[in-house]
Amino acid sequence: MSRIDRRHFLEHAAALGALSGAGSQFWNGLRAAESTLKKDKKSLIILWMGGGPSHMDLWDLKPGSSTGGEFKPINTTAPGVQISEVLPGLAKEFKDLAIVRSLVTNEGSHERGTTLMNTGRPPNPVVTYPAAGAVVSSLITPKELPLPGFIGVGGTAQRVGPGFLGMINAPFTVQNAGQPPENIRNPGGLGSTTSETEDRVRRRQRLFYAVEDQFAEGTFPHLKKPEDREASGSAAQAHSSIYKKAFDLTVSPLRTVFEVAKESRSVIDAYGGTQNQFGMGCLLARKLVEQGVSCVEVDLGGWDNHANIFTTIKNGNGPRLDKGFSALVGDLKERGLWKNTVVMWMGEFGRTPRINQNTGRDHWARCWSVVMGGGGIKGGQVYGATSADGMDIKDNGCSIGDLFATVYKGLGLDPATQIRDNIGRPMPIAEGKILKGLV
Predict the structure, then answer these.
(1) The Cα angle at residue 249 between residues 144 and 219, in degrees rounded to 5
(2) pLDDT digits (tens, 9 = 90+) for 221-265
(3) CA separation for the pair 404, 407 (Å, rounded)
(4) Domains in the chain, ordered, with CATH?
(5) Which of 37-51, 85-99, 183-197, 334-348 has the lowest mean pLDDT?
(6) 342 CA to centre of own chain
(7) pLDDT bracket for residue 184 (50, 70, 90)
(8) Edge to edge, what strands does the sheet with 97-103 contain?
(9) For a disulfide at 299, which of 145, 156, 264, 413, Cβ 3.0-4.6 Å?
(10) Contact 11/238 with Cβ under 8 angstroms?
């Protein structure tokens, strides 16, 4: 058991061990950049469309062409910007949103596309890059916040994870929006009264820290080598930080933030009702950023539409997306959160301009669309364009590095801000140029 315990600690120590050797100038600059962001409670909400959503039927319609499909474009509140008729709610909010129609990723695999779009970098067999949520969490989450800095609603965020930034920045997963997370409540049978139960929980916490402190101090007998004791200490500090947040959350009033059902009926209905799990995830995202959570990722799967794409979107994900996304934008604006919250809509790739023999569209990463808004992002516009048939970039191509640089800048983070990988090498949080006119 001692070997397993030690390995468990050492698995999550690499990032902290590397970071411990960073120079004071690096850390001082980073802390100075973070202070304003933490003070203003900056947040990122990622709306993740698992399966690869059809930009051709949502954001970049081609009416009158053989690739256009069945949906008609409608006007939005942004002059000259049209989107699909299946998104009437979002059309009303589009003066505050922007479409990038010229993203080029060239990664048509679900797994690799998921990694690329969540990290901003292609998959690497040597380096496990952190998800954007982990990067944001590591840079701006206040240490005193009882809630996790990165929360995934639906599970996709967990698939990518914190990479070399370590488990302290891993996404806390909420599988079902509207339901409290598992194990957030104290187990039954600990006491006959609330105070007795909390007292027993705190005693268990003190016992846990007594064991944890021995690892941190390197005093366990099996830790013979100095390097083992040092690694164990660094890992124990990370492990202890994670568990402290967990303990704090179980006794904090903020634990009720996950109980979406306590919202008013009018608010729940605006997000599409309790039957719209994506809408409830968007409502939970608003509640979480309101309490200072740095990044929330909400998942809406079911976009891998190789067949019957028009019926599937019209009767399924189209209305779910429209209700949840538009209500989120309106709610954030109404509550004064829009200026400090960046929202990014994306999937792993788009869908082919050509419609296949099964009335579906296949994978397409050559040119496709993402949507963003909030924070420093200038809404009411379109960046880039595709050709008349949607097969090629016509104007202003955008790389994945450009996209991430723009989103980070909109959040108030300099894309050149450095983080360090598992062996201590510095790298910018995004490698690309900020898209002109969007921030």
Answers:
(1) 75
(2) 554 555 454 444 455 566 666 666 666 666 666 677 888 878 899
(3) 5
(4) 1-39+184-258 (no CATH), 41-180+260-428 (3.40.720.10)
(5) 183-197
(6) 11
(7) low
(8) 172-174, 150-153, 295-299, 43-49, 341-347, 368-374, 97-103, 381-383
(9) 156
(10) no
